[in-house]
Amino acid sequence: MEYIFCKGKLEKKTAPFTVERKDYQIHYNALPAFVCVQCGEPVFEENALALIQKSVKSIEEEKLRLAV
Ligand SMILES: [Zn+2]
Fold first, then answer.
1. Which residues surround ligand 1, an ion (CB under 5 A)?
2. What's the 7 CA to ligand 1 centre distance in angstroms?
């Protein structure tokens, strides 16, 4: 498996990920990802992306509840 942009080799590792919104941010220190050995760019796996989306969704729902 190689990284599409630089053709570097992808290794299965973990990588940090941050979602930044105006009023909050979600930061993961280590999510499962393939990391390019050449440039260090992470390519997140589908289950990691799903986890991020779930986190954002649940925070947005909590925010709505707080606003009521
Ligand atoms: Zn690369």
1. 3, 6, 8, 36, 38-39
2. 6
44 pLDDT band, cuts 50/70/90, is very high
Sign of CA dihedral 31, 37, 40, 43: negative
**Residue 5 C-alpha to ligand 1 middle, in angstroms?**
6
Confidence of residue 25 (pLDDT cuts 50, 70, 90): very high
Q: Which domain holds residue 14?
A: 10-67
CATH number at residue 57: 3.10.20.860
Per-residue confidence band for 53, with pLDDT thresholds at 50, 70 and 90: very high
